[in-house]
Design a protein that fits this description.
It contains 23 helices and four strands. The protein is mainly alpha-helical and 589 residues long. Strands 1-2 form a two-stranded antiparallel ribbon. The longest helix has 32 residues.
């Protein structure tokens, strides 16, 4: 029992720390409602969460995945003790005496919490630091099931959680400039971003339908409030209300599907369902699925596709994305896509759902085709930038679903590679969009595509970077977006999905039209009225430049990223599992 608690708490150490830190920020914000301080602390908490995600507690043998590098002890207490007093001393206000007791109480609370947790988790042990580029000669990470087989801990979850933390961190970095230009000073929104990030990280590791439902609901509640966080804007309130009504409907459909699944089988755990339908005296041939069970699976997939903004369940996305605050739209375009793709990956890889019935496979592949088609053609008639980016996101979701439906090793490798490139491209393009907004007289506030006219004359550096990012979104070489789409189409051709590969190629060609239209407006169109674009802060410009550099670098040197994608795919099937659930075939599809 003690070993079970030790490993369970340690495996969810990142999520537990992030939830604890979010509660602290809530109290801190109530006592000192300063947006910049809460944003700094949010970034600090996400940074520590990222480090702890790649650190495991062990004795050097049981947790020796990539070799023991004992460089950290007692995180997060030590860095917290150093950072928070330094941050308060750096503050421009002489409020250290007033708020010093808050820091003191918080440090005492962290110490007491870790001592209390020490009854179950040996906090005084060494930490083994992963080397991300040392995995080629290392053994695969062990796959473990914890908390009564409700949580799955593996290398794929670690990778996707890292991307979620990276996306949330970049959104908070952009919020510094956005809070100044848009007067968006609700520190509560940052707390909701952290809380939804923690819920999505648990969602990535969910191995049970009830655990999955609870994490989806927690994430959705945070998103409803975030969409309506711009309280003085009727459009923002409308988008939040629309998102709430349709999201509640999708959650009800999901729960109805899960109830039908439970009534038909009496099971909710992914591994138990896999065992029951594929390994019960039938070899690897599934049992015949009953009508209620098939309808329950259909309801589950419809609800998840709604959350993923896949066509034809995408109609809410353009309105919500266009009306919500731009910083919130950036968050909606990043983290939820990663989390719900992880859900589909869990269901499709480790359970009977995709392999056992043609219905689920048919639903996914048709939604992938519709997402690519409607996302590309729907963006042609858009005049608002955020609505165009919403349809662009739907188009990319189609490519991701196609890589998932292919189901082979090449398809999963393309999926992991595409997710990373999509995150980098989305961070870069929203960084540019957020940089083109101002609230002073004579300064442009870019809302429509026509407002970008002659940006190359006003800010040639920003126009050049934006052009490269748009080339990547369109899949034009020499940018990494070309490689990501190329790998997906190639994997579809290798699995005889010829029609869908042709449709993906057609949607890419159509997408080139509206992306090149943006480039033409920036460089060649004459503006009706000349505007002075707002000055970009150093932090935002550095992040945009880093994204642009990565998109070029990955195209020139893709080997590291493709090998990492291959290693993640192999870890799904060749991990050294110590759990009691049955062995799975090498290829499930």
């Amino acid at each position: 029992m003690t070993d079970f608690l030790n490993f369970s708490f340690e495996s969810l150490r990142t999520e537990l720390f992030l939830v604890t830190f979010t509660l602290f920020l809530l109290v801190y914000g109530l006592l000192k409602p300063r947006f910049d301080h809460v944003a700094k602390l949010s970034l600090f908490g996400l940074g520590i969460a990222f480090l702890s995600l790649w650190i495991t507690i062990g004795d050097g043998d049981s947790a020796d995945y990539f070799g023991p590098i004992h460089v950290f002890r007692s995180l997060p207490e030590s860095i917290t003790c150093i950072y928070i007093p330094g941050d308060m001393n750096y503050s421009d206000e002489s409020s250290l005496d007033y708020f010093g007791w808050i820091e003191f109480c918080y440090l005492d609370f962290v110490f007491f919490f870790n001592q209390l947790l020490g009854l179950f988790v040996p906090m005084a042990t060494n930490f083994d630091l992963f080397y991300p580029f040392g995995f080629f000669e290392a053994k695969l990470m062990d796959t473990q099931l914890i908390f009564n087989d409700c949580i799955l801990v593996d290398a794929v979850g670690q990778y996707l959680k890292s991307l979620i933390i990276l996306s949330s961190s970049c959104v908070i970095l952009y919020s510094f400039q956005y809070s100044k230009t848009e007067k968006w000073h609700q520190y509560e929104s940052l707390i909701l971003i952290l809380l939804s990030t923690a819920s999505m990280m648990i969602m990535v590791s969910a191995f049970d339908f009830m655990t999955l439902y609870l994490t989806i609901e927690l994430q959705s509640l945070c998103f409803y409030v975030l969409a309506a966080s711009l309280r003085h804007s009727e459009y923002s309130v409308e988008s939040g209300l629309k998102y709430f009504i349709l999201g509640a409907l999708a959650s009800g459909i999901f729960l109805f599907g899960v109830s039908l699944l439970y009534v038909s089988t009496g099971l909710l755990n992914f591994g138990d369902l896999y065992t029951y339908y594929l390994l019960e005296g039938q070899g690897f041939h599934p049992k015949e699925l009953t009508g209620p069970l098939q309808f329950g699976l259909f309801c589950i997939f419809v609800a998840l596709l709604f959350k993923l903004t896949a066509a034809p369940f995408h109609l809410w996305a353009p309105d919500v994305y266009a009306s919500a605050p731009t910083i919130v739209t950036a968050f909606f375009s990043l983290a939820p896509k990663i989390a719900f793709l992880a859900v589909f990956l869990r269901i499709g890889t480790w359970t009977f759902l995709i392999n056992s019935t043609g219905l689920c496979n048919l639903v996914l592949v048709q939604c992938a085709a519709l997402s690519m088609f409607l996302g590309a053609f729907g963006a042609l008639g858009q005049r608002q930038i955020k609505r165009l980016l919403a349809f662009s996101s739907i188009n990319h979701v189609g490519f991701l679903l196609l890589a998932l439906v292919v189901g082979t090793q090449d398809g999963l490798e393309a999926l992991f590679f595409y997710i990373f490139i999509y995150v980098v491209m989305t961070i870069g393009v929203f960084g540019v969009v957020l940089s083109l907004r101002g609230n002073r007289i004579g300064v442009a506030n870019v809302l429509h595509i026509s407002d970008l006219s002659r940006l190359s004359k006003s800010n040639p550096a920003l126009a050049g970077v934006f052009t490269l990012i748009l080339f990547s979104l369109a899949g034009i070489p020499p940018m990494a977006g070309f490689l990501s789409k190329f790998y997906v189409i190639l994997s579809a051709l290798g699995s005889s999905y010829l029609i869908y590969a042709a449709l993906a190629l057609l949607s890419s060609c159509v997408g080139c039209f509206y992306y090149l239209q943006l480039i033409k407006i920036m460089h060649f169109d004459q503006p009706i009225l000349w505007h002075k674009f707002p000055q970009i802060d150093r932090l935002t410009s550095s992040l945009i430049s880093l994204c642009c550099f990565l998109l070029v670098f990955v195209f020139v040197c893709p080997t590291v990223f493709t090998l990492y994608s291959e290693w993640l795919t192999l870890s799904l099937y060749l991990s050294d599992s110590q759990t009691s659930w049955p062995e799975t075939p090498d290829i499930l599809y």
